[in-house]
Amino acid sequence: MACIVHIETATDVCSVALSENGAVLASEENYEGPNHNVVLAPYVDEMVSFADSHAIPIDAVAVSCGPGSYTGLRIGVSTAKGLSYGRDLKLISVPTLELLCVPLLLQREDLPEDALLCPMLDARRMEVYSAIYTRALETVKRVSADIIDGASYGEYLENHPVVFFGNGAEKCKGVISHPNAVFIDDVKPLAKYMMPLAERAFLQGRWEDVAYFEPFYLKEFVTTQAKKLF
Q1: N or C terminus of the chain: which is more exposed, having fewer CB within 10 Å?
Q2: Global pTM?
Q3: Mean pLDDT taken over the chain
């Protein structure tokens, strides 16, 4: 196995964790809003100091790579690349929507065997970033930006219970009303849940190129021109 620093900044929550040999050794989480530029570096330093003080050699840094908040992803990936380069560590990317599924799979043993998982991250208005997976995290629908209406995901809901979760699912509750739709609240992508996905990538030798790796933004960043006041 490996010792890995995990960084997650795809939503308003900022979290960092340290794992070794399948166990989380330490973690920090901040829920006070999008202030990753303030708290992320101290959290990373804390994890690195923990490993160094316990004489644990760090093998890799894993980062949640998107989709998600443009600014959050940029800060997280930049920090991960800096740590990877500075300490000569392997760089691992973890898809954010797959990460969202991990706490559900670990904590909800009551899910039907044929249930499909639909993690959702909030985009603008009635748009979400989503994908659909089996309970084995096999891809049924690839990651896409979806505008939600009453017919959304109907082809999957007709044949399976579909579990919707993540910070984009809340606004879909009143729109997706199919009897096979199940909504679960308060599921967040956190660094401490990255470990099984990151360790699998490490064992398979799936590294990113530190020089060229970029987050998976899914959509181009859009800016609006400020209105003239005078």
Answers
A1: C
A2: 0.93
A3: 94
